[in-house]
Write a structure and sequence with these properties.
About 0% of the residues lie in helices and about 50% in strands. By secondary structure, the protein is mainly β. Strands 1, 2, 3, 6, 7, 10, 16, 17 and 18 form a 9-stranded antiparallel beta sheet that branches. Strands 8-15-11-12 form a 4-stranded antiparallel beta sheet, with no helix packed on it. It has a 3-stranded antiparallel beta sheet with strand order 9-14-13, with no helix packed on it. The chain is globular. The model has no long low-confidence stretch (mean pLDDT about 95).
């Protein structure tokens, strides 16, 4: 089974555009740490959304120039998200890619071994492994995003194309 590639609105990012570097982080605008009159901190969260960048350097540009960047686009990442714990049930923090199912791992001794994983309505349930001390569910997310048209550079020889785009969850 081959691993999936990054896709933006159905356009697959080919390896000829360079090995992609992905970042995924919370969008800071949705929450703020407030101080009460006695100095106690209160985290006020209005919403939780993600943002990130994708960049690469290869023999050709990413091929996304034909997309309509004024609309939300579907972004399928290959950056793995994971949740660990002692239990077998985990609520996923984002939607998994529909073309690559989430997978489960169990910590047995010092090794992580595969275990069955099923997901229903954003909740992953793993199968117990005798002797396991911890569990982890992993997945690759898909987001609806607003994305900037990639900035693209080409060196003077014409052989290397560098590019980068930033995105925010819609």
């Amino acid at each position: 089974m081959s691993l999936p590639r990054i896709m933006l609105d159905g356009v697959e990012l080919l390896l000829h555009a360079g090995a992609p570097v992905e970042t995924l982080e919370p969008l800071d605008a949705g929450s703020s740490l407030l101080r009460m009159s006695d100095g106690a901190a209160v985290n006020q969260t209005h919403y939780e959304k993600m943002t990130g960048t994708i960049s690469g350097q290869g023999w050709m540009p990413p091929g996304w120039s034909g997309l309509d960047f004024s609309l939300p686009l579907e972004l399928r990442l290959t950056k793995v998200e994971a949740i660990s714990g002692a239990g077998l049930v985990f609520t996923l923090t984002s939607t998994p890619r529909p073309d690559f199912a989430p997978w489960g791992l169990a910590l047995f001794g010092r090794d992580w071994v595969p275990t069955a994983c099923s997901v229903v309505d954003g909740v992953a349930t793993l199968t117990a492994v005798a002797g396991a001390t911890a569990y982890r569910v992993c997945w690759m997310p898909v987001f609806s995003v607003f994305c900037k048209r990639p900035s693209e550079n080409q060196d003077s020889s014409g052989n290397v194309h560098s590019w980068q785009t930033t995105w925010q969850e819609a």
